[in-house]
């Protein structure tokens, strides 16, 4: 019979790049304690990367050596595996929409799950729990605009909304306006002023 570590590595190699290997998904191979111990051994030998509590990733091997999978791939795979909504932070959204020139230095994502940190090689990714309204329209431009406005805050929201009204396609801006009942009062007021004022 093959060793548990070999079985786990074989399982990890069959997954798409960046897909987390969770102890719970390997319980068909052995007891929880045995699986945890085997995962720990693989991480010590650097055959797996420990990304967080109970979450491991297979390193990507190239001619330049082994590296962690890309942050985007790992976050997408984690969202799919755990059934969470995970989106880029408001700072990233504001920058990509041209509402700020600040470039975020740290990798921060908003999640419907609990707040936690994930290690991808030398990079730490922070997953912050966010209210449901910030995760609405998750992977749409209107949702990105919503997160940017939340990050900018009440003082700069109206000015940013004027810019967004010009930049976003009319259908996306309408989607943002339609989401107003879900938003906090300060943001719903600003959206109403810019849309109908």
Q: Would you write up a description of this structure?
A:
By secondary structure, the protein is an alpha+beta fold. The chain is 48% helix and 18% strand. The model has no long low-confidence stretch (mean pLDDT 90).
Show unreliable segments: none
Q: What is the mean pLDDT? A: 90
| Count of helical stretches | 9
Write out the strand line-up for the largest beta sheet, numbering strands in chain order: 6-7-9-8
What form results from the Cα inertia axes? elongated
Structural class: alpha+beta
Distance between the termini: 72 Å
Residue share in helices?
Answer: 40-55%
Number of strands: 9
Element-by-element helix/strand order:
HEHEEEEHEHEEEHHHHH
Give a brief rundown of this model.
With 197 residues, this protein is α+β, with helices and mostly antiparallel strands. Helices cover 48% and strands 18% of the residues.
Question: Which helices and strands, and how do they pair?
Answer:
Blueprint: H1 4-14, E1 21-22, H2 32-44, E2 49-52, E3 55-57, E4 60-62, E5 65-67, H3 71-82, E6 86-88, H4 90-96, E7 107-111, E8 116-120, E9 123-129, H5 132-135, H6 141-152, H7 154-167, H8 170-178, H9 185-196
Parallel strand pairs: 7-9
Antiparallel strand pairs: 1-3, 2-3, 4-5, 6-7, 8-9
Features:
single chain; alpha+beta; 3-stranded antiparallel beta sheet; 4-stranded mixed beta sheet; elongated; 197 residues
């Amino acid at each position: 019979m093959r060793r548990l570590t070999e079985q786990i590595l074989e399982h990890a190699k069959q997954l798409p790049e960046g897909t987390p290997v969770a102890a719970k998904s390997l319980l068909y191979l052995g007891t929880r304690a045995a699986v945890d111990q085997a995962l720990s051994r693989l991480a010590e030998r650097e055959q797996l990367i420990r990304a967080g509590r109970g979450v491991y990733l297979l390193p990507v091997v190239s001619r330049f050596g082994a590296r962690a999978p890309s942050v985007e791939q790992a976050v997408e795979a984690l969202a799919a595996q755990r059934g969470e909504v995970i989106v880029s932070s408001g700072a990233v959204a504001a920058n990509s929409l041209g509402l700020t020139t600040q470039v975020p230095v740290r990798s921060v994502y908003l999640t419907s799950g609990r707040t936690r940190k994930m290690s991808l090689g030398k990079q730490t990714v922070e997953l912050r729990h966010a209210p449901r309204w910030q995760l609405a329209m998750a992977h749409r431009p209107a949702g990105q605009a919503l997160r940017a406005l939340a990050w900018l805050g009440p003082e700069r929201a109206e000015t940013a909304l004027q810019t967004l009204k010009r930049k976003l396609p009319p259908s996306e801006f309408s989607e943002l306006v339609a989401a107003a009942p879900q938003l906090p009062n300060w943001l719903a007021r600003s959206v109403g002023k810019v849309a109908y004022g």
